[in-house]
């Protein structure tokens, strides 16, 4: 088990403990101070955490300043807890999407470089298989949501005495956390059921929406990767200096765009900014141009260049009055090829 796994487990434990303390505090306050039953207290807490807020609680909070203060703080803490849980869920979804795109990019790179003669065909097959798996997942979640919805409607019809149309209306208002409050459970059995059901309903609806979004996102992402080809426009853009040849750095730029790692417009702006910097005769930018403080501190400049692997550097005399290093031509690095 890695340190990251231990940290995640510790965070889950702390979050679970915080949730238990939150629920326990609410139940203790509302049963002891307001005289509610445990079921009514848990029912109210469930509506707070899911942000449904029917407004069908017992009594009027506005008649008691201490209750208003407690509920205000309690609602804010509940919102922070659910927001934290939502943020973690979104991060998991984003990480899954990034891993999938990275995997497809590696396969696309193999297809482009000829490392695998069937790589592009395999990439197409993998993309279709992933789309089928996601469609099956969405279909399964849709069936689960229908079952959950019918169960809730049945309880509202046979236990609470509502019509099927009223139950469907309640289902939509509750599942989207709008919570008008004109229809809500009134019996202890209905409230006891709602304590767990509102979490199941909102979660199943949210997961279904997320899965549909993931299906569309995967399709658009992979289609974008597969549709980008070495067009005449892209090749002309790669020839940055217009000499009719593609150099190593220009090729790198094209591959980054081709694989979707960077946007072409962003990369063009970055290269344009480099062209605006002062260059020496070799077309390079001296370190002191990027770090103005290095021009007044020869020790810093020596340290920077030494850390880059340059063993020898000749610095001109420093003007002791102005403490400015004159511009100089950057030393040339020679690549030595030999046995390791």
In short:
This protein has 340 residues and is mostly helical. Helix content is 68%, strand content 0%.
- What is the total tally of β strands? 0
Which overall shape is indicated by the principal axes computed on the Cα atoms? elongated
Q: N-to-C SSE series? A: HHHHHHHHHHHH
Average of the residue pLDDT scores: 77
Strand count, sense and barrel status of the largest sheet are: none
User: What share of the residues lie within helices?
Assistant: 55-70%
The number of distinct helices, counting runs of at least 4 residues, comes to 12
Distance between the termini: 36 Å
Oligomeric state of shown chains: single chain
Specify the structural class. Answer: mainly alpha
Radius of gyration: 32 Å
Strand fraction: under 5%
Uncertain residue segments? 309-340
What does this structure look like?
With 340 residues, the protein is mainly α. It has twelve helices and no strands. The C terminus is likely disordered.
Question: Which terms would index this structure?
Answer:
about 350 residues; mainly alpha; 12 helices; elongated
Write the layout of secondary structure elements.
Layout: H1 3-32, H2 38-49, H3 65-113, H4 119-158, H5 164-175, H6 188-227, H7 232-238, H8 248-258, H9 264-276, H10 287-290, H11 292-295, H12 298-307
Helix pairs in contact: 1-2, 1-3, 2-6, 3-4, 3-6, 4-5, 4-6, 7-8
């Amino acid at each position: 088990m890695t340190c990251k796994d231990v940290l995640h487990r510790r965070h889950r434990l702390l979050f679970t403990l915080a949730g238990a303390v939150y629920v326990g505090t609410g139940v203790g306050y509302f049963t002891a101070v307001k005289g509610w039953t445990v079921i009514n207290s848990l029912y109210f807490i469930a509506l707070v955490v899911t942000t449904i807020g029917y407004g069908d609680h017992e009594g009027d909070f506005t008649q008691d300043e201490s209750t208003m203060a407690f509920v205000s703080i309690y609602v804010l803490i509940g919102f922070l807890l659910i927001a934290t849980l939502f943020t973690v869920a979104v991060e998991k979804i984003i990480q899954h999407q990034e891993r999938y795109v990275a995997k497809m990019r590696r396969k696309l790179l193999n297809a482009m470089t000829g490392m695998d003669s069937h790589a592009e065909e395999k990439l197409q097959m993998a993309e279709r298989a992933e789309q089928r798996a996601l469609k099956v997942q969405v279909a399964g979640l849709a069936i689960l949501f229908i079952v959950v919805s019918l169960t809730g409607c049945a309880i509202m019809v046979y236990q609470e005495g509502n019509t099927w149309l009223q139950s469907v209306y309640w289902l939509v208002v509750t599942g989207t956390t709008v919570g008008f409050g004109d229809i809500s459970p009134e019996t202890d059995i209905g409230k006891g059921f709602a304590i767990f059901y509102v979490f199941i309903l909102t979660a199943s609806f949210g997961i279904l929406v997320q899965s549909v979004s993931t299906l569309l996102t995967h399709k658009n992402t992979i289609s974008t990767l597969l549709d980008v080809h070495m067009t005449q426009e892209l090749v002309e853009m790669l020839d940055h200096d217009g000499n009719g040849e593609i150099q190593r750095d220009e090729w790198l730029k094209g591959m980054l765009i081709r694989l979707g790692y960077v946007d072409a417009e962003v990369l063009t702006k970055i290269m344009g900014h480099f062209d605006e910097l002062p260059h020496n005769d070799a077309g390079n930018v001296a370190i002191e141009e990027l770090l103005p403080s290095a021009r007044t501190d020869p020790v810093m400049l020596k340290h920077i260049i030494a850390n880059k692997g340059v063993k020898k550097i000749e610095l001109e005399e420093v003007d002791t009055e102005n403490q400015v290093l004159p511009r100089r031509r950057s030393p040339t690095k020679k690549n030595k090829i030999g046995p390791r």
